[in-house]
Amino acid sequence: MKLWKSQLQRKIPSLLFSLLCILLVAGCAGTPKIEATLSEAETCDKIKNIIDKYPSKYASFRQGTKTNNPLQQADIWNAQTFFPGTECQVWEWASGLANYSCQWRESGEESANAIYDKHKPKLGECLGKEWSGTEKETPNGRQTIYRKDGGKIVVSIRVFQHRRALLNPWWTSLVIGDPIETVEPPKRKAAK
Prior knowledge:
Layout: H1 2-29, H2 40-52, E1 62-69, E2 74-79, E3 87-93, E4 98-106, H3 109-127, E5 131-138, E6 141-148, E7 154-161, E8 170-177
Antiparallel strand pairs: 1-2, 2-3, 3-4, 4-8, 5-6, 6-7, 7-8
Helix pairs in contact: 2-3
């Protein structure tokens, strides 16, 4: 009897924790997920606000603890997200460059291209005639880069297959800040 009681006392904390988790999940399951949408005017205001924060290297958007990416020589923070369905970060590169970057993670090429095709013209309209956009094919997708005459900052929207991630998912990204070259892993030489 004593042995059984002792074992039960040790298991009570884990049983209570499990019960609490079940109650939390059950409570969340009944709550509908709300996917907020922004009007075009709201989206433009958000983009212009991000552009305005470029001189501060997006310091006011940084959230949480800084992490370091030694491969790309950058410090990275999670960032305030302005666009529904995205995950955003602030990157500050060792060279002093900075970017505000958001990604839509998609399950396939078709849905990633649909997001790119939806947002690219809206982005161009939002930026206005002072900005010019150049679209180009990339080895793993396509990209449009908007530049303002005489300006240092660029706004880029890109659709690509992430070749370094598990299962090579397709993503669409929006990057605002300094022009950067994407660091790709070195290509393997064919065996002779």
